[in-house]
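User: two proteins, same treatment. go.

Assistant:
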Amino acid sequence: MIIAPTSAQSGSNRMLGGVIVGLCQVEQQYYLEDPSFPCCSHTCIFLKFFNKTLSNLITDRIILEAKRELYLTLKPVKAIAYDLGFTDEFHFSRYFKKNVNISPQTFRDTVGSGKALAG
C-alpha cells in the first residue's frame, strides 16, 4: 500500500507520505531491473537497499523531524506531537524517549532553542 500525501495532512505527514512514496518507487524500479530477485517482501528489499526495515526508516524520519522541530521552534511538545500524527503527547514523549534515550523536553533544554533563550 502506498501512502500518498493529501492537502488535509500536516506538513510533516505530507513529508512522511512523500518519503514512503519515494521508497516504494525505488522498490518498483528494482523489480523492473531484476525481476528474478528471489525476495517478494517489502522488508527484504528495504533491508537490501537501506539495511533497515521500512518501519525503522519511518521511525528515523519521524525522530529527525521531531528533533528539528524541538531544536528550531518554540512550539509546545504537544503541538509537535500533533503535527507528527500523534494524538497523545504522552505517547509521543514515550516514543521519542525510547528512540533517543531522553525526553523531548530534555532534548530541547540541552540542544534546542530553549537553551539559547535560557542563556
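Protein 2:
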Amino acid sequence: MFVMVSKFQVRPGEEDAFVALHEDADRQQRRPIDGLISRELLADMEDPSTFVALARYRTRQAAESHVRDPAYEDWYKRLISLSHAAPDVALFRMAWPTE
C-alpha cells in the first residue's frame, strides 16, 4: 500500500469551503479511481486552519496516475487557492501490518 499525506494551511475563513471541496469531489466522482483505496481529511483540533489529507492507494503508480488526471489537477488548484501555499506532502509505504 502507498499513502500520500498532505498538510494544508488554509486561509482563515476558508475552512468550510476547503472541506466542501473534498465533499464535492466524492459526490461528483463518476467512476472509481483505479487503485484508490480510501481518502480522509483530518482537521487539527488546536488550529482550525490546519488540515491533513490522507490518500491510500494500492501502488505508487496508481497514485501518480491519479494526480496526473486533468480533473484532479483542476480540483487541486482550487484547494491551493484556499490555502496559504502548496501543502507539505509526504509519501509513505505500508510498513506494518504487511499485506
